[in-house]
């Protein structure tokens, strides 16, 4: 038989194209005493029972294997799957489903495990209006098929808020029965749900209503709540509690915190900035949110851009806070492009427009031209920036910098760090489609660096209101490059 390419590609695989086995009704599934409760998935996959046959599929718990590792052996009279936990058995079944030709399987072995602990995709339900119940379930099944294990879900006003916050719920909000089905489907397939509830910025959906006028940081954009107003935390926790009640037990919760461009606008916040700086104003509010989350035995995650732009924040950030580091422009390692948030720009050395011209791949060159500005890297970056971040830029500076240099910066400060590339972010396209060449290189380069730095995982983001079908590329790329 012709064996399909397995995705993500296994570490060890030896399958025969000449020798096969027919898994028919003479087979049965034999579990050790309920190792993980996945036997029914194997019986359903092959239409067989759990006893009485002459050939068996043996599901064996093996505590010597890593958390998501599995070992698969397909022999003429027995298929043996060994794993330590439920995730490993599900991954083995996903591999079997890819290599089978109906009831026919190739003889041989596969042994496999991922290289990053957390591997996932963002579902921006708030902004991608076509993400209805069926589209989300389809993406959940695709993510599980390719061995991802997490979904970062931002509901915004498409969550069915009730009670005092019912005005916030959009007419297109998902229903509670729909959300329960989504949550159950994800958990049954081994996917962790990480809810994202913005705690400061990107709250246009909330602050447009007069009921929340008193917690607006300013009155024009109406996108950011005031971090100095005690009611801001009260409102946020009210929203977060409803989401957590429906989603159920969570290991992690993302509190957002990115692009808080109006920090220090209102008089009370301006006074705090004058006294202690923007970083401290930001940390004061984020820490209160983190404390509320941590009290519920949930790890809070915050976007990194404000932490990077105001590095003094790191000295005051809540000890439980984990960091999700986003960068959608870097496409190679080492990289000519530097996201210098503290210095206020995405930049590259101007000599790439002169003496070094012609040395870059097309994807990187296009990214520089579209998003970055030329500077003299060794002269124009400030002494203060280089004093904080210079040691992480690598030995080829200023021509190149180490890709995603802040990974080591955050890790050196004892933080749990996740990478966040994108499969639908920034405004560039490829023949009217999302910029697949740039996104693919961004995901791969970030995954490689997260693996190298021993980061905690990678979540690929997707922001724009495009067909959800396009997100399957993000699933495939994330799966392939993080495994």
Structure report:
- Helix 3 packs parallel to helix 4 (176-188), helix 7 packs across helix 8 (278-294) and helix 14 runs parallel beside helix 15.
- Helices cover 33% and strands 21% of the residues.
- The mean pLDDT is 96.
- The radius of gyration is 24 Å and the shape is globular.
- It is built from 15 helices and 20 strands.
Overall number of structural domains: 2
Give the overall shape, derived from the CA principal axes.
Answer: globular
Mean pLDDT: 96
CATH domain topology of the largest domain: TIM Barrel
Give the percentage of residues in beta strands. Answer: 15-25%
Instruction: Return Rg in Å.
Output: 24 Å
What's this model, at a glance?
The protein is 33% helix and 21% strand.
Keywords for this entry:
alpha/beta, 483 residues, Chitobiase, domain 2, 2 domains, TIM Barrel, nine-stranded parallel beta sheet, six-stranded mixed beta sheet
Structural topology:
Layout (H helix, E strand, L loop, with lengths): L11 E11 L4 E5 L7 H8 L8 E7 L8 E5 L3 E6 L2 H14 L4 E9 L5 E7 L8 H13 L4 E5 L21 H13 L3 E5 L7 H4 L22 H18 L4 E3 L12 H10 L1 H17 L4 E5 L1 H5 L12 E5 L10 E4 L4 E5 L12 H10 L1 E3 L1 H4 L2 H7 L16 H7 L4 E4 L1 E3 L4 E2 L2 E2 L1 H18 L3 E6 L8 H12 L1
Parallel strand pairs: 2-3, 3-5, 7-8, 7-20, 8-9, 10-11, 11-12, 12-16, 14-15, 16-20, 17-20
Antiparallel strand pairs: 1-6, 4-5, 4-6, 13-14, 18-19
Helix pairs in contact: 3-4, 7-8, 14-15
């Amino acid at each position: 038989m012709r064996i399909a390419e397995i995705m993500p590609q296994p570490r060890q695989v030896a399958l025969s194209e000449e020798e096969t086995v027919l898994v028919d009704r003479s087979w049965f599934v034999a579990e050790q005493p309920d190792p993980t409760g996945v036997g029914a998935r194997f019986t359903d996959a092959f239409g067989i029972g759990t006893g009485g046959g002459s050939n068996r599929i043996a599901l064996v718990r093996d505590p010597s294997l890593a958390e998501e590792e599995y070992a698969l052996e397909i022999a003429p009279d027995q298929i043996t799957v060994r794993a330590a936990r439920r995730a490993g058995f599900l991954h083995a079944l996903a591999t079997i489903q890819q290599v089978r030709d109906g009831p026919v399987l190739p003889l041989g072995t596969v042994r496999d495990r991922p290289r990053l602990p957390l591997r996932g995709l963002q579902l921006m339900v708030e902004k991608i209006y076509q993400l209805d119940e069926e589209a989300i379930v389809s993406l959940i099944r695709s993510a599980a098929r390719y061995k991802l294990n997490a979904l970062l879900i931002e509901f915004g006003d498409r969550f069915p808020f009730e009670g005092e916050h019912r005005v916030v719920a959009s007419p297109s909000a998902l229903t509670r029965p729909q959300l329960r089905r989504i949550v159950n489907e994800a958990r049954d397939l081994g996917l962790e749900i990480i809810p994202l509830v913005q705690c400061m910025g990107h709250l246009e959906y909330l602050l447009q209503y007069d009921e929340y006028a008193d917690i607006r940081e300013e009155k024009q954009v109406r996108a950011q709540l005031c971090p100095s107003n005690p009611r801001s935390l009260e409102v946020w926790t009210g929203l977060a509690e409803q989401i957590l009640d429906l989603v159920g037990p969570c290991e992690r919760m993302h509190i957002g915190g990115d692009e808080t461009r109006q920090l220090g606008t209102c008089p009370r916040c301006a006074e705090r900035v004058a006294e202690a700086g923007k970083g401290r104003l930001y940390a004061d509010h984020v820490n209160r949110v983190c404390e509320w989350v941590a009290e519920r035995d949930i790890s809070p995650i915050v976007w990194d851009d404000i932490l990077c732009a105001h590095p003094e924040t790191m000295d005051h950030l809540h000890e439980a806070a984990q960091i999700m580091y986003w960068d959608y422009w870097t496409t190679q390692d080492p990289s000519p492009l530097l996201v210098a948030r503290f210095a206020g720009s995405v930049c590259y050395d101007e000599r790439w427009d002169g003496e070094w011209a012609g040395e870059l791949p097309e994807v990187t060159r296009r990214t520089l031209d579209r998003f970055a500005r030329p500077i003299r890297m060794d002269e124009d970056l400030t002494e203060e920036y280089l004093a904080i971040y210079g040691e992480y830029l690598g030995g080829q500076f200023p021509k190149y910098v180490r890709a995603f240099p802040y990974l080591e910066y955050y890790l050196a400060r004892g933080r749990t760090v996740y990478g966040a590339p994108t499969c639908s972010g920034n405004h560039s396209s490829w023949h009217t489609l999302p910029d697949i060449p740039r996104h693919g290189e961004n995901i791969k380069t970030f995954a490689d660096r997260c693996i190298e730095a021993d980061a905690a995982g990678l979540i690929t983001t997707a922001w724009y209101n495009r067909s959800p079908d396009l997100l399957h590329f993000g699933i495939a790329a994330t799966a392939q490059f993080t495994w």
